[in-house]
Design a protein that fits this description.
By secondary structure, this protein is an alpha+beta fold. 50% of the residues lie in helices and 17% in strands. It has two domains: 183 residues, no CATH class; 119 residues, no CATH class.
Length: 302
């Protein structure tokens, strides 16, 4: 009996997500670079909005690509385990009512929002099936896994092999009783929040960034020009419009978000949680250094 792994197709989805990540990164870098070279005005505001709008989705697409790389469907005589990034669903075979192709439905199955290849993720409602959760990569290879709670939609690279293996495993019966298990990405956040040290680092980083934004917003109207950039020895101090100070809190906030997500990644494993605290502590220090940098900039005579 061929009991084992039936992973989803990954190559096409990883290529598409990689292209999207590179394109957004290029736009964000160009936008932030243009901020340094532009005086206050419509062009400055447009560059800021473009840079933010392109940078904010990058962690989202990186997580989708990571989830696809880790995605797997494992079937044995006791359970069907679905793994998609931080989302894990372990279903005892006795809880599965049926596994069949989505093409057998009389009412077509609506795809989740943002149905990029390699990332069919989300919850939809079907008039016949009720709540449907997608953990799939390819819309042409969808299988329905029905349980009493909800229906899961998966997409193994070889749907027929998984369906046949499930039928044989059901006929042979379970070796040991399996327990149902559901793990969601939000569980990691809740677990980390219960740590006093994690809460302290998160809140301190948040307040430092908020304070930096408020301070810069107060400095800009009262200080027309500031020295922002590198100065070579014996060279005159070049100044720019103080509105460009907004770059510092923006970069600080974006680095903090990246550090927060990276810390959550390490926090999932007990043996690597020290790395999570190091990353979160580094994010807090980075925000503090940005605050000190603004202090030096606004106190430097121009």
């Amino acid at each position: 009996m061929n009991v084992g792994h039936f992973p989803p197709p990954k190559r096409r989805g990883l290529i598409i997500h990689g292209i999207v990540i590179l394109a957004l990164t290029g736009i964000a870098v160009a936008g932030f670079t243009n901020l340094v070279r532009t005086n206050v005005g419509p062009v400055f505001l447009t560059s800021l909005l473009i840079a933010l709008a392109s940078f904010i989705p990058i962690p989202f697409f990186i997580y989708r690509a990571y989830s696809l790389m880790q995605a797997d469907y494992h079937l044995d005589r006791d359970s069907l385990a679905i793994k998609w990034g931080l989302r894990v669903e372990d279903i005892p075979l006795t809880d599965i009512e049926f596994i069949r192709s989505a093409d057998d439905l009389t009412v077509p199955l609506p795809l989740p929002s943002l149905p990029l290849p390699g990332g069919l993720i989300g919850i939809r409602r079907h008039p016949d099936l009720g709540v449907v959760e997608f953990l799939a990569a390819d819309a042409k290879k969808l299988l329905l896994v029905a349980t009493a709670k909800r229906v899961f939609v998966i997409s193994p690279d070889n749907p027929a092999a998984l369906t046949q293996t499930f039928a044989r495993a059901t006929e042979m019966g379970s070796l040991t009783p399996a327990e149902s298990k559901s793990v969601y990405p939000s569980f990691v956040v809740t677990q980390a929040w219960s740590s006093n040290l994690a809460r302290y680092l998160w809140l301190t980083t948040l307040f430092l960034n908020l304070g930096l934004f408020i301070w810069v917003s107060l400095v800009i109207p009262t200080t027309p020009r500031v020295a922002l950039g590198f100065q070579f020895a014996d060279s005159p101090l070049e100044t720019v419009s103080s509105s460009q100070l907004i770059i510092l809190p923006v970069i600080s906030l974006l680095l903090s978000v990246v550090g927060w997500v990276a810390g959550l990644y390490f926090y999932r494993w007990e043996r690597e949680r020290v790395l999570a605290f190091i990353v979160w502590g580094s994010s807090m220090l980075t925000s503090l250094f940005f605050l000190i940098a603004v202090l030096f900039i606004v106190t430097t005579p121009v």
